[in-house]
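Anyone else keep sequences and structure tokens together like this?

Example one:
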Amino acid sequence: RSDVEVGSCLSGGIDSSIIVMLLDRFFKEGKDSYFPKVFTAVYPNSKIDEEQWARKVVDATSVRWFKTGPTGTDLISDLNDLIYAAGSPISSTSTYSQYRVMKLASEQGAKVLLDGQGADELFAGYDIFYPVFYNELLTRFKLILLIKELKQSGKFWLQLKKWVYTDIQMLLKRLPSPLSKKLYEVAITELQYLKPEFKREFLYRFGLLNFPFGSNLNNTLKNYAFGEKLQVMLRLEDRMSMHFSVESRTPFADDTALLDFAMNLPATFKIRNGVRKQILRDSVRNILPATILQRTDKIGFQTPEFEWLKSLESEIPNLIETNINPFVDTELLRKNLNSIIGNPTSHESSRLLRFVFFSQWKKIYNM
């Protein structure tokens, strides 16, 4: 019930698609002549573009669809305003997708947007939850079901390898502080760019980080939902939306009855036959288009960082300023820029850009 226009974000994944389908149904059942506006960030010709999936939802409804297609050049143009809106250094360019979607919504007169944040944390939507689920089945001696789930994934040996690797990785993170510090220095490549004296003084903080994991799926999900993982995303969503005078609402993350219900469901309701968020899929089987319902390849709110890095190769060095010299060896960082940009990985590129965001944040806020 609202006196202003209500719309929704639409990525093409299950969560936002559910919200859009229900929003469309709500107005149709009320015989309302209002057709909700929905907003999508698209990246034509990029492997991470999800426009085709969002289109399937739009074609199944009467919503009005608006798209924005930000580029690397746009990111540089909007960088100061983006970081000012965030209020703190951001960790990846996915925040820029959110920024542009909120900007588009504001330009189209939408005052309230619904979004699907929180469903992954309630119903086990991330890959990292597979190893936790397998751990739970193993500790409960449900060995037949464990073998079945590994087989149902369609990639038995690959899943088994990922499970063992993730368990080892998480165990290493729980080693006593002196040992974990050594491991962090080896595993986290950007630490090599920190000044030795700064690193020595503050490296202990890595030992204080919370890495939600274990052998109980619901406990792990609670740590994701109520810990820093979801909270960071919700904070940025709020910052991006309010920057453009848009109220963002997240039905999956703010309904206490739903939270309580979901957190008390057995793990086998959430992952079943190798499929994540199974009970959520079952509940909307008669609502979602079949192609969306069966999706298991959702990649998150990403941007084509690899392509952007290539196009911005000449601009990035100018965005790493001397204001971070007390903390960062900018000379070494600049020396390695070309090799990182020339052979980017998701980790390297995002981590490179974090130095850019940090430097520009200090500049914008005169820190």
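And example two:
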Amino acid sequence: MADSVTSRPWGRNLRHALLAIPLLLVVSVLAACAGSSSAQSFGTPVAGQRVYDIARVLTASEIADIEQHASAVAQAGAPVIIYLRKQDSTTSATVNDAKALMDAWDVQSATGAHDGLVIFLNLKPSDPKHGSAALYAGAKHANASLPQAELQRIYNQVMLPHLRDGNIAASITAALDAAQHDLMNGAPVVPARTPFQQALAVVAGVPMLIGGVFLAVLGALLGLAAWRRQPRATEPPVATVEATQPDQTQPALVGALVSRHISLSQLLASIMSLASQGALNIESARGTFGRQVVNLHLAPDAPSVSGFEAQVFDMLRGVAESDGLITPGNLRSLPGRWRSLGQSLRAEMVARGWFDPQASQRRRPLYLYATASLVISIIAFVMAAVAAQPLGIVGALVLFASSILGYVIGGSLHETTVEGENAAQPWRAYAASLKGDAEGLRAANDADGLSSLLDHGVPYAVAAG
């Protein structure tokens, strides 16, 4: 019983083995046929022919010219085949095609020489003037005159410009000439990178991109923190229905309060306020070549003015002519004199508790960051450009943009205190009411009402910007 038990599996295995033999033979034949088909997929080489234009994109004269250049390459020591066909393909696939052709057609001067060269082009069926190309050299030349780096250089610098123009024949002859030159003279010597250049190439790539993005994020967080620490009003906004002036605060102070900064707008508002009080007249006149100009004329019996407006009036008197006339030429000197007046206005705002005397300290970290980032971004950009590292250039540009943003945020941080923000609330409501009333009067075509509104409202509107 035991014998019968052991004999049955053995008999079954034998039958299976016998049945498998024909199957293996079939598979072997198919594989051989497939290999033969693959080897013969390029066609059959013709003795003495080096150019195979299966794509039919070259003229007879172009083929003859390429044959002459290929002959020169062969005489220089590299049997060469140029193969063109229509087939959509990638660059890596075309390289594999070139290697397969060299193996299938035994492109070498003798068995074991490994000195052949193949130029293979897969052209797009829909656009035969363009496609992918590859150069493949046998081991003898790949280890000497035609290394991979040199073949890539020939493709990038010699073939590709012609291929982009759709000039296939010129791209092939140029590549053959470059290969002949290398075979006769050796591949161009690429200077070895110094340790500094090697380190620069490493640092100026991904690390520089990561560093630039990190510093940019750091700057954004710094700006956000500074922005959120700004003093804010503790009292709710005032909602006024009528354009009622809250008090008699001079327009320049109101403008600094509402805009949160000192600017030339406050000087212009003070001049308009002086005009509304009769301290000066704003006159239209004809200037050179008949152009319309505006003159200021100080009133001989000017009413008494005080505070900051008295300082502005004294400044105007300092630039006026003997009869009190201030021409556009005289007005050009006002911005230069504004610095001292601006400091005086800021001092009054600080004295009232509306401006923070340490406001510049809140801007300083952002300005320091922006300046340092600007310098670093310029240095990084130069390093990445020298090392030809696009990622490093991107990192430098990100950091540069962050530095500019740092300056913008720093300049926008206001000077007002919590008390100043609270004091500005009714004036902001007043400015909004002025705008709404002016629009309503204009729509109603009420010229008298609009004129009355502008008489007392314009200096404050100008001061607030």
